[in-house]
Amino acid sequence: MPLSQRKRIVMSVAVLATVAFIPSAPGAAAAPPAEFAPVTASVGTFGGATVQGQILSYNDFHGAIDPPTGSGAVVNAGGTSTPAGGVEYLATALTKLRAGSPHTITAGAGDLIGATPLVSAAFHDEPTIELMNQIGLQVSAVGNHEFDEGVAELIRIQRGGCHPADGCQDGDPYRGAKFTYLAANTIDKRTKLPILPPIDIRWVNGVPVGFIGMTLEGTPGIVNPAGITNVTFTDEVVTANKWSNLLRAFGVKAQVLLLHEGGSQASVTPTPGVSDCTGFTGPLVPIVAGLDPAIGVVISGHTHRFYSCKLPNSAGADTVVTSAGSNGQLVTDIDYTLDKRTGKFAAITAKNVIVENGVPDGNGGWQRDAAGTYLKNPATVDAAAKKVADKYRTAVAPIANRLVGSISADISRTTTAAGESPLGDVIADAQLAYTGAQIALMNPGGIRADLDADQSSGGEAYGQVTYGEAFTVQPFNNLLATQTFTGAQLKNVLEQQFAGFGGQTTQRILQVSAGLTYSWSASAPAGSKVSALALNGTPVDPAANYLVTTNDFLANGGDGFSNLTLGTGRVTAPGFDVDALVAHLATGPIAPGPANRISTTA
User: Fold this and answer.
1) Where does 527-599 have alpha helices with state H?
2) Could you give the 3-state DSSP secondary structure of residue 480?
3) 3-state secondary structure of 58
4) What are the tens digits of pLDDT across the range 461-478?
């Protein structure tokens, strides 16, 4: 390669990569919890001088500034339930883990923001970014939820500046993320370049470690299409290997992929550990199988599952793959050895660590108050993180703690075998009442939390629901669109719930409003799975017209529902989808939905 060309490429890499020198900090490593067995991979040989380093990672934080509540308050693993999460506890856990390594890099794998509780969402997720800065995040991939408010907003989140419509609501300038968002496979259609840096290089005692970051290629199908019209999302394997080859050409031979895509084990809470990845499946498997062997670690996300195990790469060798679940309840501690002569990884060990926030009861469990809520441990609070979080908690409290309605019992988003949930029913019914349509359909991915009758965010009584709790269930501020569809078009919409019809790639069962009933068969061919489709007991007429309400995410073709873009006479209701839920809760107490509107046949 001519010298002039090498110089141009070096300069390009220098522009795209943020280079940092990692300082030393002595200390002893914390012992991992017994239920989390570490995974170890020998990925090279060495006989000379080595460097020890550490990566602390997490993913799918989703603005979980406050500790999760209800059934999500604990991490279930190894036969035990441990209360975990909350940003001031995450900060403490990171500080403790950093004390065990002289060279630590803190990394994320996307969805730090988006689908966030009101304490973050009310300020366009600036609180989460400010807290990520505070707790020492250095580099992160973008995830699909980073695009919830569109590309332009993501660029503002990275670079800073007041929101173009709402300004700087907290009275302080928004200075942007101190960490580097990486978006290697999000390509501007005009410039043909990534919208944000694709790579980041960190120096560990003189040895470079390269980070490649990206979201899943399927992002366009799961975010509102309106915000991403000017970008494309490229193949994960092709993109990762492209940047891996460039990094390697310029001497960066120890590489980490931050990937907002993942997999899952055969069970939700693997026992006894998470290092074996028993029955592991999902998009992550073929992606790793295609990766260049220089990528020794893949820090993943998206599926909200926790794991640390090994998968074969393109050379058939081990690549360590990890995920820290979601909501800041876990941190993955990755310790590695670098060969100073070759610059390559020699050995890698990874384990997940619980971000405990509870008070031990002395008997292997955790203290609770009279209502059964886990007590929080003031000894594990990071004061600096709490100070930032409390600023926003105080600012949002008058809105978040406003009582809006009531429920008679817990209303769960857990689905039946047919794909219907009690909370899905309630939300669809709320939208039906709000718009006056005949049918309402709700995407299950837009339901982000259960409604827990015993949750008391603002000190309210059992069954009372606050605005903040309702917003946590539906945090996207989607609009409600009502369109006219023929009965034949409606059936095609429901057929598009299943992979193989109308370009659909993933099964997604829409939640339906009262009066709409049907059955579906897993064994029937694509396009013919839905039967017995009826409205209020009367078969749906293929030639008749029906008024159907969805959120605008679906109406714009989100989640692969391109058939929902074919409606006519589109009308948008005032307010947002959460306003429909709030109005419905005000007529309460609302009981859990019956979850009997959708059934299955052989």
Assistant:
1) 552-555, 577-585
2) strand
3) strand
4) 999 999 999 999 999 999
